[in-house]
Amino acid sequence: MDALKLKILELLKEDARRSADLIATMLGTAEDEVARAISEMEADKVIVKYATVVNWSKVDDEKVTALIEVQITPERGRGFDAIAERIYLYPEVKSVYLMSGAYDLLVEIEGSSLKQVASFVSNKLSPIDRVLSTKTNFILKKYKQDGIIFEDQADDHRMLVSP
Questions:
Q1: How far apart are CA 136 and CA 118, in angstroms?
Q2: pLDDT in tens, 85-94
Q3: Residues 74 and 80: beta-carbon distance below 8 Å
Q4: What's 78's DSSP letter?
Q5: 65 has which bridge partners?
Q6: What are the pLDDT digits (tens) for 36-78?
Q7: Exposed (0-12), middle (13-18) or buried (19+): which is 8, by Cβ within 10 Å?
Q8: CA-CA distance, 19 to 139, in Å (whole number)?
Q9: I need a labelling partner for 127 at 20 to 30 A (CA). Which of 35, 46, 139, 152 fits?
Q10: Which residues, 6+ apart, have CB-to-CB distance to 73 below 8 Å?
Q11: Cα 135 to Cα 103: distance, rounded to the nearest angstrom
């Protein structure tokens, strides 16, 4: 991937609302070149989606998010991919990651209650062939996501001391 596309990706990751015109100005290049690069990256599925980061704790829509550690036995010839695909097709599942360490997959799910999340784990996830064990961790509070700090930071009123 060329340097221009990498710079465009960085700028869009910071703020997906930036226009091709603004990005071109920021990078000192032509707008049509930026627009073409963005179109190519969308067609090649480098840019998959433009998303908004929401601080759900400021909204009255209560959601329960859980991170589930899943140990599995890989499938001959397909490894972890077949089981991961079965899991990520459920609508409750927001993310699935292949991990190194004590467990194989990390599954992020969202539900309307603890009971709904527990039901997903016991009725849908655990019965999958090749799932050996699960460990559910509930997210109690998000402080930072995708580089964005959710909490208002208190001003530092300490005196500046220099050597």
A1: 9
A2: 999 999 999 9
A3: yes
A4: T
A5: 110
A6: 999 999 999 999 988 887 777 777 667 899 999 999 999 888 8
A7: buried
A8: 34
A9: 139
A10: 130, 132
A11: 9
DSSP assigned state of 75: B
Question: 0.85 cut: is pTM over it?
Answer: no
| Placement of tokens 């920021």 in the chain | 26
Q: Side-chain half-sphere of 6: how many Cα atoms within 13 Å?
A: 3
Q: Where are the beta strands (DSSP E) in the chain?
A: 64-72, 93-98, 105-111, 131-138, 144-145, 148-149
- Contact 66/117 with Cβ under 8 angstroms? yes
Residue identified by tokens 């998303």 is 51
d(CA 1, CA 4): 8
Q: pLDDT at position 74, please?
A: 92
Cα angle 40, 51, 96 (rounded to 5 degrees) comes to 95
Distances (CA, A) of 46 to 9, 22, 33, 78, 94: 9, 20, 17, 24, 19
The pLDDT tens digits of the residues spanning 94-120 come to 999 999 999 999 999 999 999 999 999
Q: Which of 122, 123, 127, 90 is nearest to 109 (CA)?
A: 90
Q: How far is residue 34's CA from residue 81's CA, in Å, rounded to a whole number? A: 35
CA distances to 3, 15, 16, 96, 131 from 50, in Å: 21, 9, 6, 19, 33
